[in-house]
Design brief:
The structure is a single chain. With 242 residues, the chain is an alpha/beta fold. The chain contains nine helices and ten strands. The protein folds into two domains: 163 residues, P-loop containing nucleotide triphosphate hydrolases (Rossmann fold), CATH 3.40.50; 70 residues. The strands form two sheets. Strands 6-7-8-3-9-10 form a six-stranded mixed sheet, sandwiched between helices. Strands 2-1-4-5 form a four-stranded antiparallel sheet, covered by helices on one side. Helix 3 crosses helix 4, helix 3 runs parallel beside helix 5 and helix 4 packs across helix 5. The longest helix is centred in the C-terminal third of the chain and has 16 residues.
Length: 242
């Protein structure tokens, strides 16, 4: 498999605090990989560095062989990286379709007018919001706002999709729908790196998992093996369970 993302010795310090400490891993083209770890382990900080929200203190991040570490978020987005956030970010004064159309206008091969509206409706249908483009984003339920945010990320036609706890807060039926949706993206060849705490979803979606604890990478391998690793169990549950 061709490597799409290569992270080498990535470090992020905030004053005297090292949030990410010399982390190295890669993601192959078309792979869906979980980035796991207890709260405060540095997972979202890694996503923030990949997407450009934070600049690395040291180390490198490459996308298809090109170093993107430290570039502005808009430049990284133009190179094919899209993401969702732990807390859904909507443009509340706009309609559902307009939220997606906004992303279509700013991607490299931008769309405008009727073409943009048609594409927005297609994307909304893909995520289960077909026919709801004229509703106001603020009026959507939590799960539907998450669907809309995913449609907006997909509007960028990303090479790499970063999902930060996209499945959290869903009821069992919504969770199954969400897993199926992410599965369909993988089947289309999209590369996905996801931060997730719902192990049912991780097992269903990810053939491989990378685990962090207190800023350090402690495991990287097939998901079933990683989740059975005593060091991983200890990180999540404490020494008594390892």
């Amino acid at each position: 498999m061709t490597t799409l993302v290569e992270i080498q010795n990535l470090k992020k310090q905030f004053g005297g605090l090292t949030a990410v400490n010399a982390v190295t891993f890669s993601v192959a083209e078309g792979e869906t990989v979980a980035l796991l770890g207890p709260n405060g382990s540095g997972k979202t900080t890694v996503l923030n560095m990949i997407s450009g929200a934070l600049a690395p203190t040291s180390g490198s991040i490459s996308l298809a062989g090109e170093n993107i570490g430290g570039l502005a978020p808009n430049r990284i987005a133009h190179k094919g990286v899209a993401r969702t956030f732990q807390l859904v970010r909507v443009l509340p004064s706009l309609t559902v379709a307009e939220n997606v159309t906004a992303a279509l206008a700013f991607r490299p091969n931008h769309l405008w007018g009727h073409a943009a509206r048609d594409r927005a409706e297609q994307l909304l249908a893909e995520v289960g919001l077909g026919g709801r483009g004229d509703e106001h984003a603020n009026d959507l339920t939590y799960i539907d706002q998450k669907r809309m945010e995913l449609a907006r990320a997909l509007a960028a036609e990303p090479r790499l999709l970063l999902l930060d706890e996209w499945l959290s807060g869903l009821n069992p039926t919504e969770l199954r729908t969400g897993i199926d949706l992410i599965t369909s993206l993988g089947q289309r060849g999209m590369t996905v790196l996801l931060v997730e705490h719902i192990m049912e979803a991780v097992r269903a979606l990810c053939s491989r998992a990378v685990v962090m604890n207190v800023g350090n990478k402690i495991a990287d391998g097939p998901t079933a093996d990683v989740l059975a690793d005593p060091a991983v169990i200890s990180a999540y549950l404490g020494e008594d369970h390892a």
